[in-house]
Structures are given as C-alpha cells and as structure tokens.
Amino acid sequence: MSPEPFLGDVAHTPVRHHILSVLVENKAGVLARIAGLFARRGFNIYSLAVAPAESHARFSRVTIVVDAESAPLEQIMGQLDKLVNVVEINDLAPVDAVERELLLATIETDVANRTSLLDTLANAGAAIIDVDPGAVTVMLAGTPSACDALERALEEFARVELHRTGRVALPRLGRAATA
Amino acid sequence: MQLTGAQALIKSLEQEGVDTIFGLPGGAILPVYDPLIDSSIRHILVRHEQGAGHMAEGYALATGRPGVAMVTSGPGATNIVTPIGNAHMDSTPLVVITGQVATGSIGTDAFQECDITGITMGITKHNFLIQSAQEIPRAVAAAFHLATTGRPGPVLIDVPKDVTQSMMEWWYPVTIDEYDLPGYRPEVPLDDRAVAAAVALINEAERPVLYVGGGTLKSRAAKELLAFAERTAMPVVTTLMARGAFPDSHPQHLGMPGMHGMYSAVTAIQRCDLLISLGARFDDRVTGKIAAFAPDAKIIHVDIDRAEFNKVRQVDVALQSNVAVALTALDAGGAMPRNLDVWWKTIRGWQEAFPLVYDEPASDGLLRPQHVIEAIAAKAAPGTIVAAGVGQHQMWASQFWKFEEPGTWVNSGGAGTMGFGVPAAIGAKVGRPDRTVWCIDGDGCFQMTAQELTTARSEGIPIKVAILNNAYLGMVRQWQEMFYEERYSEVYLSADLPDYVKWAEAMGCVGLRARTLQEMHDAIDQANAINDVPVVIDFRTDAAEKVFPMVASGASNDDIMVHPSQRSAQ
User: Fold this and answer.
1) For residue B117, which residues of chain A lie inside 8 Å, CB to CB?
2) Taking the CB of residue A118, how many other CB atoms lie within 10 A of it?
3) For residue A17, what pLDDT band results from cuts at 50, 70 and 90?
4) A17-96 sits in which CATH class?
5) B182–A74 CB contact, under 8 Å
6) 3-class DSSP state of B458
7) Mind listing the domains of chain B with CATH numbers?
8) Is B49 labeled as catalytic in the residue annotation?
9) Are the Cβ atoms of A87 and B307 closer than 8 angstroms?
10) ipTM score of the complex?
C-alpha cells in the first residue's frame, strides 16, 4: 500500500487558514480588484503570491492564504467568483495541499558566529547564495513551518533583512481539490 | 471599413440597440460627441452628470433595458459615481461611458484626469479602461452582456481621448466567445437536488411566506410568481425593491415588509415556519435585528448570486437560479404547502387590527402627506409610473400607492440616494413616453437635483413632480423626534425658501402650490390636464406626520411600532 503520508507541513497552518489558488486573467488592475474586494468586505489575507500561470501569458495564478475566521470561506469564494477577471478558484484545505515558500535573509557574519550560523543553515537545509566579507545572504525553499523554524533560529544572529514570499500550493496528489 | 474610435463607439452602441444616451460633454469625451450628431441615438443633455446617471437608472427600472450615460473625465466622471453606486446596490443594468485623458498622460495628474476605474472598482459589476480603438467593439458588447445577464449591475467603460481619435478596422463580436470573458458564468444549471429539497420543505409548511425581492423583477418573473402564489395559496410580501412584482390589489398580497412595512407583512414573516426568498437579500431594513428575524422559519433562498446565500441568514435550501426558472421548477416538482386556512385566519386578524392608517385630513391647516399621495393615485391613469426620492415621502409612496405591474415603481433602495427622484422620473418617462410619470418627492430631495427639470423642459419630457413640502429633512426629523428627545439638529429647511413655484417657472415648468384640500384637488387636476411640459406642485404638508409602522433601527421586528391610534389594540 501507499507509504505513510507525509504530513510534516500540515501542522504549521492553523485550521482557520485556507489556501485559495485563483486563476485570473492577466489584465491590468486584477490584483487591485482582488485586494479591494478583500478590503471592503473585511476579509483578511494572510499571504499572497502572484505569478504568470503555466505557459499562458493570458492568465496568472494568485495564491491567497485567507483567514477563514474573518468571514466564512463560502462567502469569500462567492464574492471572489463574482470578479469578472477571476476564471477559476480552487480551495485547498491545508490538509489537502502541499505548500512551499521562499525565504531570503541577509545575516551579518564574523569569525565568532560563522560556525554556528553554518550549523543552523545546514540543519534547516538552507543555502548560501551571496557572500561578502561581513555578511551572507541565505535562501530556504521549504514548507511554511520550515521557514518559520529558520526565521526563529536566525533571531540569535544579527539579521540585516529577511523576506518571505508567501506560499504557493498545489493539491496533494490523490486528493481532489474543490472548485 | 476604417472608423475612428469615436465612430466605432457610437456604432457599437447602435449595435446594442441603444436608443437614448443621457450625458454631458467635456474635453476628454469631445471626439465621441462628433459622430453622435449623425447617429440615430437620442442624446439627452443633462445639467449635472449625477442627473445623467439617475436618468439612466430610471430608464432601466421602467423599461428593463440597460440605461446608458456618457460623461467626460475627472469631475464629469466623479459626478456620476453616486448613480453608479446606487445602481450597484440595486442591481440596475447600466452602461456608463467616461472620457479619459490620453493614454500617454494617464498617471501624470493631467488636466481633468482621475482614476475612475479605480474609484468605481468596488461599485461596478465590472469596468474597462480601453487601451486601443480596435478593442472598443468588444468592450461595448461585453459591457452590455455583463450589465444585463446574471445579477445585473452597472458597467463602466473608460475611453482615453487618443483612443477615440485613432483609427480602427470596424468589426463587431458575434458570439459570446468573442467577448473574451473566460471567468464569467452568469447562469448555472438548476440543481435538481436543491429543487427536490425545496419542494420537500414547502410540502411540510403550515405557515409559509413568499418573500419577494428585486431579483424577481430582474428575472421578469411576475407572471410565474402570480401563477405559483395562486396555485399554492401562499401569502406574498414584496420588498421596497420588488413593489409591482405582485399586484397590490391581490388578496394574497400583504404588502411591504421591513422597517416601515405593513404590520401583517412584518409579523407574518416573524411567525412563519417557511420563508421563501425570491431574489431578496435579507437587507437590514427588512430583517431588523437579524438574530430575532423569522426565528421559527426554515429558509429557501432563490438567488442568481451565490454570494447571497448564508451572507446574512443561514439558509436551509439554496437554489442558485433566475427566479422565473426556479418557480417553474418548483411548480413542476409539485410544491404544495399544507392547508393554510388557519394561517390565513391569523393573518387576516392582523390585517384587520392593524391596517395602514393616518390621521384624518384636516380641513384647515397643513395637508397630510399620505392623503396627498392617495389623492394623486386616485386621479392617476392606470399604469402610471411613480418615482421617488429617499425619505419619509418615499416610504409613504411605497405604502399608499397601489402598484399593479412591474416597472411602475422607480426608487433608490439599497443606497438611499436623496435626489434620485426627479432625474429618475425623467429617465423613466424617456423610456416609457406612453405612461404618465409622477415623481413623489420631498423638499430636501428636490433641492438636490431639481435643475434637471430644465433638461426635462428643453427635451420635451413632461413629468409631474409632487413635492411633499414639510420644510424639513423629514425622516431625520422623525428620528430626532423619536430617538433624540425631540432635539432637532440641522433638519429645518423652510417651506418658502426657495419659492418652489417660481423655481419651477424659471425652469420652464408649470409651478403650482396647494395649501388646502381644495387646492390639493385642483392642483392635481390641473397637473393631469397638462401633458406638454413638466409640472411641479408644492404641497404644504404637516411636518409632525411620521411614517408608521416603524421598527427602530437594530430592534427586533417583534417590537414594531404601529400608528399611535392603534397602540391600544397591540
């Protein structure tokens, strides 16, 4: 039978968060329409990521992590669906999705902290992508919880900057997403 | 065929069957006004862009066809924001064309530039900023498709000046696919399981109520509603947005529910065991305190817009559909409640105990506004269209006029836009020149948009306006009297300033004044005899009159306040 399901990234996402994977027409102002809708209806956005969808220049994929406690998910999806430029909405419950996000951080380094920083990065599976004599920039592409863990671990170092992209997600294989 | 963008825009409107545009030109829309000279489309030159928008709404509400307005950029565009918001709240099909500064100037704070697509994003069903002349036909066709299908609403097309001045090769989309709206699916197939579930609920009901909203009129479902109501013998209430969807003369009609609804309509909803909402949206003016609304009722909610389900009230059965289609399906499914004799006996008791009343008209002193409306109605030709502003006069018009057919009540519901009445009446008359159009207005509302009577006179649109002049912002005064210990704050307007008769005459209308009962009857007769120019009657009414019944804001509908003369019976 199938192996033990991998659920390592599930615990991170509190139940009240839902991931909406929204296919939109790639037209001027689409993001403003979505953001405006959420603002005027009082729906909270936890994170948001946008990029061209697949190979079609015509569509973009917007991944919105919504706070389903700010409004019922049915209401959020119903209102979102009324935006003419929204083509398709997939509701990915956290348990039914695989999620990843990207973390970039620039850390000040010196001889004293270099070893422990390298250990921290190795443990997290993060990579160094830029270096200068006094600092490194590191990257982690991982589950939101892995990014959370690295973010916490980096608190003990002198952080210059830390950016996260917000997550993107796809349906977990073998589970159907609901449109 | 090579056309300018401006020519293509006018030709596209002709393709959509537009017969009238309400508008006012200015710099950025100037190129479009040139080919308009050669077009078959009638243009009504308004005196303020807000008037153009409300006229287009009045036209749409009276005819069921989309209203069209055209204005320039910047302040022209912002002046029409209120009608757009109003149409959005009331799901009125509107296509609004705004001029925009040239594409190269967008974003530079150019003269009369404003981001009207940004401003109206939240109050349009959709809007377009056109980037090239070649796109114009598609945008116009898509705009009309969006405005009139599914849940109707306003659509705005913003056209930069260089786009209307540049050349395009004429074409026009033939199929919906060419509209390029991949995300727009206005109609969904009826869910048979939901229909079956609704039928099952109806078949168990002992105290059902048909709660008819504006969506019934938008669905053109009056015929289906009448057949369904008569077959099932259920009581009917029609919301402010649905007046005319079911004849007021029909014995099953309890009238309007809500804050100023009929006692029987409000109370039947409170006591019903099944509420069947037909294109209504559980507005707070209908529900009162939502936690106390129809506490024993199961809910069947028919709506074309799925976002309405469970938005305010949790439903038992959601039926996403046009109302006519849903009623036909419920009929075919054999929906039939139990014997309703006991229910009707209870309702008839409420109707007898708490009819709509007002104090006897005094033979001297000021007129009763309710009596003025009844007198106008009694002398009105069948099929007369009534437009109203917003406030006490609007509620009295809805209560005391007897509406018998769709398209005869033109009012601002969701937005509550003062000043709606006069321009909306003009638009209604343009759309239905065969009908008499009365505007029942308040003195406060009249002062907001009265300048459009100049438009009416110069364009030959003979509407009749009844100003219920109580010298106050009457509804606010009523609230201050009832809920603010009669501390009247900034509500007095004066009955004589302005002089409404002189003002009407200055705008080329006939101006009349009525202070006594005799003058009231004479003035109405005189107005009815005039059919070539607009008439304005200044009726001097009693400011002490209040709208009853009333459910206080935020109160339960169980705590409905009836007319003082009925309090002992309550």
Assistant:
1) 29
2) 13
3) confident
4) alpha beta
5) no
6) helix
7) 2-179 (3.40.50.970), 192-353 (3.40.50.1220), 369-540 (3.40.50.970)
8) yes
9) no
10) 0.91
